[in-house]
Amino acid sequence: MAGEPKAKVIPLHANSSRGGSARRSATDRSDGARRHPSLLNDPGSRASAEQIAAVVREIDQHRGFAAGAETEESSPNELAQRIAAVAEFIRKRMTGEYSVDEFGFDRHLNEAIFLPLLRTLFNSWFRVEVSGVENLPEEGAALVVANHAGVLPFDGLMTQVAVRDKHPAHRDLRILAADMVFDMPVVGQAARKAGHTMACTDDAHRLLAAGELTAVFPEGYKGLGKHFQDRYKLQRFGRGGFVSAALRTRAPIVPCSIVGSEEIYPMMADVKLVARLLGLPYFPVTPLFPLAGPLGVVPLPSKWYIQFGEPIDTGDYDESASDDPMVTFELTDQVRETIQQTLYQLLANRRNTFFG
């Protein structure tokens, strides 16, 4: 039987202005989503097309049986629902009934695989409480700016689930991630399919111009790899490139404050020599890592809070504001101060790190 087809994604060329690291140029992408080619229409798979069609017909029969089992019983048949869902997923992947956009975002795969896995952490492990989702627009562009911490970027993933599940419109949050994520085998491909792209001004501008809800974590590695003694103290917000992108597209800026991420891997030390040897921005030493081996990779079950603040309107600025360093600095400082003060308020209301 022929293998699962790969979505056609336009390769993005290297950008010499970003230190020679492998990246994709936003200007080299084609516009619009591309529908995944079906195995049934692939000339190279004609020899097995009849077999694939037979499998699809069998899946459809099972889906019909599962749906019938659910309607016949007085209570919903959970097993039948799961069988139907799995069959539907396989059928769509085999027939190509899904699309991938120019950034590599595979909404079908994200909803069927990635989000269900992350929801286990969101609901049962971190027990995330979300507030302020009404400050996110029902449609159109907005730039979510959040604090960054926790050694590994679970905060970005949990924010993505929060927006998808708690927002009335169940919007997808497109995250601007570090270059290193996309240099890693498997991880980089998965990140693209989950809707993430590189944290560069061009990609931020393109997403916002397309009306996407976009998130950035401007502290970068400085926030992600800071010591536990500096928890919830915001680091420098870079050069304000995210503000320039928001100003150019007239997208509102939504401050986002996250409490709980600092405690999942309490970083006691950073072994810089090992980090350099491994090509990492830092090598953390936590109470459990590396002494506890693989168990040290399991995040501690801290209680999380995610709060979206009131949006900062950028529509009143003129077109030249995005190139004005004073305007960029003032807006960056305003966003940073809003997040910092909200963090202090959330921490003051939290009674216990693990129980809230």
Automatic annotation (TrEMBL):
Q: Which GO terms describe its molecular function?
A: acyltransferase activity
InterPro entries membership: P_lipid/glycerol_AcTrfase_prd, Plipid/glycerol_acylTrfase
Domain Phospholipid/glycerol acyltransferase, by residue range, is 142-261
Checking SUPFAM superfamilies in the record gives: Glycerol-3-phosphate (1)-acyltransferase
Q: Which domain of life is it from?
A: Bacteria
Q: Where is this region: Disordered?
A: 1-47
Q: Name one GO cellular component term.
A: membrane
Q: Which residues form a coiled coil?
A: none
Protein name as catalogued:
Phospholipid/glycerol acyltransferase domain-containing protein
Where composition is biased (Basic and acidic residues), the residues are: 25-34
